[in-house]
Specification:
8-stranded parallel β-barrel; globular; TIM Barrel; 10 strands; two-stranded antiparallel ribbon; 10 helices; alpha/beta
C-alpha cells in the first residue's frame, strides 16, 4: 500500500516545493493539493465537513501551479490534485496544463477530480449545480480524447470543439490516471463509469471500507476489472489498526491530511506518519 500527504498550500504554510522534498525524502508516494478558485461571501452552501468553513479554503493556492514548483525539486513523488474542480475549468486549457505538468515531471501526474459542493462558487464560473456531474463526465471524456488523439474533436451536451491540434501530450500512456472523488454509491458509480480509481473521503461519519465489497461487485457488473480501479482513502488517520484495516482490504493508497501550517508543525507530523508506513 502506498502513502500520500495532502495539504491546502497557502502563503502561510510550508511551501509546496519544501513539502514535496520533505515528503519524497521520507518515502511518501504522492503529494495532493486541493482546489477552490474563490469562496463567495454569501456562504449559502454548507461545508460537508460540518461547522464553519476553515480559513485555508479561502486561501489555497492554485494546485497545478503549486504542483509545478514541487515537480521542479523532486524526482519520484507523484503530483496529484485532490481534487481538481474540473467543473470550473475549461477542458482544453486544463488538458494542456496537465499534459505540460506530466511532461515536465517525467510522467508523475495523477488527476483527482470531483464535482464540488459549493454551489455559489461554481455558479460564478457559469456551472449549474444540478448538471455538474453530467458536465464532469463530459469534461473527463474530452480530456482523454485531447490527451490521446493527434486531431481531437468532441461533440456533447456541454463540451464542443471542432478537430484541432494541441501539444504537448502526456508522458503517461494512454494518459495520466483520473481518480474520481466522492461518496458511496454515487461517487463510486462515477468512478466505475469513467475513472481509473475511486477516492472516498474518510472520517466523515462513514467507513469507506464497509462499501468496498459492493464497489468491486458494481465494477464487475459494469464490465470493469475491479483490480484495475485502485482505492485511495483520502483523509485517513494514522492509527495502526486503521492502517492495517486498509491494507487487509486491498486499498491502493491512503492519504494523510496535513494542517495548513509552517515547517515546524508539518515536518514532525510527516515523521509521525512515517512510523506507520509499512
Amino acid at each position: 500500500m502506498d502513502y500520500g500527504v495532502a495539504i491546502f498550500p497557502t502563503d502561510y504554510t510550508i511551501t509546496p516545493a519544501d513539502l514535496a522534498v520533505a515528503a519524497e525524502e521520507r518515502g511518501f508516494e504522492s503529494l495532493w493539493f486541493p482546489e477552490h478558485s474563490h469562496i463567495p461571501l454569501s456562504r449559502k452552501s454548507p461545508w460537508p465537513g460540518g461547522g464553519d468553513l476553515p480559513k485555508q479554503y479561502y486561501d489555497c493556492m492554485d494546485p497545478l501551479v503549486a504542483l509545478a514548483t514541487a515537480a521542479s525539486v523532486t524526482k519520484t513523488i507523484r503530483l496529484c490534485t485532490g481534487i481538481c474542480l474540473i467543473i470550473q475549468r475549461d477542458p482544453i486549457q486544463l488538458a494542456k496544463e496537465v499534459a505540460t505538468l506530466d511532461q515536465l515531471s517525467g510522467g508523475r501526474v495523477v488527476l483527482g477530480v470531483g464535482g464540488g459542493w459549493n454551489e455559489e462558487e461554481m455558479s460564478d464560473h457559469g456551472t449549474a449545480f444540478d448538471s455538474r456531474f453530467r458536465l464532469m463526465a463530459e469534461r473527463v471524456a474530452a480530456l482523454k480524447i485531447i490527451w490521446t488523439e493527434s486531431k481531437p474533436q468532441f461533440s456533447g451536451e456541454f463540451v464542443n470543439f471542432e478537430p484541432m491540434m494541441t501539444w504537448p501530450k502526456p508522458v503517461q500512456k494512454p494518459h495520466p490516471p483520473v481518480i474520481v472523488g466522492g461518496g458511496f454509491p454515487h461517487g463510486a458509480r462515477r468512478a466505475i463509469e469513467y475513472g481509473d480509481g475511486w477516492m472516498p473521503i474518510g472520517g466523515r461519519g462513514w467507513d469507506p471500507l464497509d462499501t468496498l465489497p459492493r464497489f468491486r461487485q458494481m465494477a464487475a457488473e459494469a464490465d470493469r476489472d475491479p483490480d484495475s480501479l485502485g482505492i485511495t482513502i483520502f483523509g485517513s488517520d494514522d492509527e495502526p489498526g486503521t492502517i492495517k484495516g486498509h491494507q487487509d482490504a486491498g486499498v491502493e493508497r491512503v492519504v494523510f491530511i496535513l494542517p495548513s501550517a509552517g515547517r515546524d508543525e508539518v515536518l514532525p507530523l510527516l515523521d509521525q506518519y512515517v512510523k506507520q508506513m509499512a
